[in-house]
Design goal:
The chain has a single domain, classed as MFS general substrate transporter like domains (Growth Hormone, Chain: A, Up-down Bundle), CATH 1.20.1250.20. It is built from 19 helices and no strands. The chain is globular, with a radius of gyration of 20 Å. α4 runs antiparallel to α18, α14 packs antiparallel against α19 and α16 runs antiparallel to α19. Mean pLDDT is 87; it is low at 415-419. By secondary structure, the chain is mainly alpha-helical.
């Protein structure tokens, strides 16, 4: 029991506790509606290519704000940055998505939502900077679990879609997202405090503007390049983001438009996927983490690859369609849960703590640069064939698997329990 996620959850203190305990509100707000954003846009009249273009615009904006996130996080502090940019990127965007009537609403939301490049950095700094290093992997496991808890409530989406049809139902969910996300921002701000490193960086950056601070990135890049583990963690995270971007954008589309699954049934698949991810994070991954990180990382890439392959091969007709979708989701769920948690854990283990904000800013900027073209590419491919975005995903996952094997072949592995 002492090494379980339950024990970690009970023992959390300070900022890690505030971040983990408020994370279910993210799942119950944004995770209930964001998985359906692509089919919502389709229903309003956008094409696959335009949806992909919006993903690319959003990613480019995240890239810009990821670049600025280090100086912003250091100057404003981890706690304040998280609150301000969560309001801009999620609360305000939820209202825009709720009122959306055409492409231009979604374009404004895509640009504004890109400011979450700051929160992605500041929130992770808030989580780990005052945490015990040996707890980091388990903390991220708990964060992933909290995100997937929303899947339990996915039948609410199904009921709403059945009763009101897709567009009105998703609009209701965006109103819910605004309310709960605003509540999350308030509670987290009141329950947290600025980290020790954050207080130091606020003092050190006093009197300097954001662009002056951004000019110091040359030295930060040098620090990153001197750490082989940090470089590996950034590349692996970029590949994972590419796959997740394509999968989250086009999964609903292929299942609804190619496999002809009714819109009201789509939320039920999220229940299944989330349930599997929670089981994996609570009961399977901790067993692997008693050893080295290589095994769970390899298995996560392989599991995700199998899930994507099965999705492409599922026949449109026949009694096996629904069981095969569930099997595909099983592999996807294990793969997503493992990759997302491990990518955050590996970078947290390797990063230089005194330059965490700026290193994480460079990391997110690189990820966004790598990911940006794939939204448009995925949309273009989906217009040709609904299968092609997922074939592209399989290529990316294969690259990640090969890079993992090459990196760990040279004895660079680390134990998650004893780092």
């Amino acid at each position: 029991m002492k090494n379980s996620l339950f024990a970690t959850l009970i023992d959390l203190k300070g900022n890690p506790r505030a971040c983990v305990y408020t994370e279910p509100l993210w799942g119950l707000s944004m995770n209930l509606c964001m998985p359906y954003l692509s089919v919502y846009m389709l229903a309003i009249g956008l094409s696959d290519t335009r949806i992909g273009f919006l993903v690319t615009v959003n990613t480019l904006m995240q890239m810009v704000f990821s670049f600025l996130s280090g100086p912003i996080t250091d100057k404003m502090g981890r706690r304040k940055s998280t609150a301000v940019f969560d309001v801009l990127a999620w609360c305000l965007c939820s209202l825009i998505w709720w009122r959306a009537e055409n492409f231009w609403f979604f374009l404004v939301a895509a640009v504004l939502n890109g400011t979450n490049g700051v929160t992605t950095n500041s929130w992770h700094c808030l989580v780990v900077e005052d945490a015990e290093k040996k707890q980091i992997t388990r903390i991220y496991s708990l964060i992933m679990v909290c995100g997937h808890l929303s899947g339990i409530f996915a039948p609410i989406s199904s009921v709403l879609i059945s009763k009101f049809t897709l567009v009105p139902a998703i609009k209701i969910l965006f109103v819910n997202a605004f309310v709960l996300m605003a509540l999350k921002v308030i509670i987290l701000y009141l329950a947290s405090r600025e980290t020790g490193i954050g207080i130091t960086r606020i003092a050190e950056t006093k009197g300097k503007n954001i662009f002056q601070l951004a000019g110091g990135y040359g030295g930060v890049i040098k620090i990153i390049l001197q750490s082989r583990g940090t470089v590996f963690a950034i590349v692996i995270a970029a590949l994972s983001w590419i796959v997740n971007t394509i999968n989250s954008t086009f999964w609903q589309i292929i299942v609804n438009k190619k496999l002809l699954v009714p819109e009201a049934v789509l939320p039920l698949f999220n229940v299944f996927k989330s349930f599997l991810a929670i089981i994996f994070l609570f009961f399977v991954l901790p067993w692997f983490l008693k050893g080295l990180l290589k095994i769970p990382l390899v298995l996560s890439f392989a599991s995700f690859f199998i899930g994507q392959l099965l999705l492409v091969l599922i026949p449109v007709d026949g009694a096996l369609k629904y069981p095969l979708i569930l099997v595909s989701l099983m592999f996807d769920g294990f793969g997503v849960a493992g990759l997302m948690m491990l990518c955050e854990s590996i970078i947290a283990i390797h990063v230089n703590p005194n330059e965490r904000a700026r290193i994480m800013a460079i990391r997110y900027m690189f990820i966004m640069i790598m990911t940006a073209p794939f939204g448009w590419i995925g949309g273009f491919l989906s217009d040709i064939s609904r299968n092609l975005p997922f074939i592209l995903n399989m290529v990316v996952l294969a690259c990640g698997l090969v890079l993992t094997l090459i990196y760990y072949r040279k004895g660079n592995d680390h134990s998650a329990e004893h780092t």
